[in-house]
Design goal:
about 280 residues; alpha+beta; elongated
């Protein structure tokens, strides 16, 4: 593994976190990490100055509360990164090595992406034996948080060999699923869109102004707050497509969407919102 001061400091912290007290002497740590004893001693002195370890007992250094918090944070990042790399097909040795570097130097954005991916893999595993289920079941399996997923809005009927709804371009992609206490909300950000006039072929400005979703046999208006439209994830119907690592969770709900186009209002026939996980 690439040895640089910050990496060695965290490796020492992990030894103190994971090992028995009897194995946490300078001699044992230097043997475990394959480093010179004077190197470990020098780094421990620095770490003591930073408030990360307590060396009151010379032969049994321990992590302080601050040091334990940092070590546990790093350990969680290593575990997430390693699971992600193993899922992507990397062998254990290289996954462990790269995971340590990602955990130490990766941005919070990178770790959030990995955490999101890990949660997707976990929920696919938990739901792999179900053929169909609703959005409530799906959300109850997810940890609280916000997730981004790709989606497509299909029109009800094929037109000009195309079944993608014009409203598909009326929202930012991907959508967001916010989950709290097992309940989820789909959030879509409205975007301006261009639509060709059926009269003269000119491009006209358009915008989604209303969205209704099918719930228990009736259409219900989605909430609109500024540029955001939201509706409950519970109305989604999921089916599982494929098996194993390539399995896709396919969730959908019927919509009715109203748009403005060049100052006029236009209601599109029923559309199908489809989320892919």
């Amino acid at each position: 593994m690439l040895e640089i001061p910050e990496a060695l400091k965290f490796r020492i912290m992990m030894c103190l976190l994971m090992s028995n007290p009897s194995s946490c002497t300078v001699t044992e740590i230097s043997r475990t990490l394959k480093e010179k004893k004077y190197t470990i001693t020098r780094f421990m002195s620095r770490m003591e100055q930073e408030g990360l370890i307590d060396r009151s007992a010379a032969r049994a250094p321990v992590l302080t509360q601050k040091g334990r918090a940092q070590a546990e944070h790093y350990q969680e990042r290593v575990s997430l990164a390693q699971n992600y790399l193993l899922y992507k097909g990397m062998d254990m040795e290289h996954a462990r090595e790269d995971a340590c570097l990602w955990a130490l130097y990766g941005s919070d954005a990178l770790m959030d992406m990995i955490r999101n991916s890990d949660e997707r893999y976990r929920i696919k595993q938990e739901l792999r034996d179900k053929k169909s289920y609703n959005g409530s079941v799906f959300c109850r399996k997810l940890k609280d948080g916000s997730y981004t997923f790709p989606f497509i809005i299909y029109r009800e009927h094929v037109k000009d060999n195309d079944n993608i709804s014009m409203a598909n371009n009326g929202f930012a992609h991907p959508c967001t699923l916010h989950v709290e206490n097992g309940e989820g909300v789909i959030r879509l950000r409205i975007l301006p869109m261009l639509q060709k006039s059926v009269v003269n072929g000119k491009l006209l400005d358009g915008r989604v102004t209303k969205l209704e979703y099918l719930d228990s046999g009736r259409f219900v208006s989605a909430e609109i707050h500024g540029e955001m439209i939201s509706f409950p994830a519970s109305v989604l119907t999921f089916i599982n497509l494929g098996t194993g690592a390539d399995q896709i969770l396919h969730g959908s709900v019927c919509l009715r969407i109203q748009c403005t186009c060049g100052g006029a209002h236009a209601a599109e026939p029923k559309a199908l919102f489809t989320i892919l996980i």
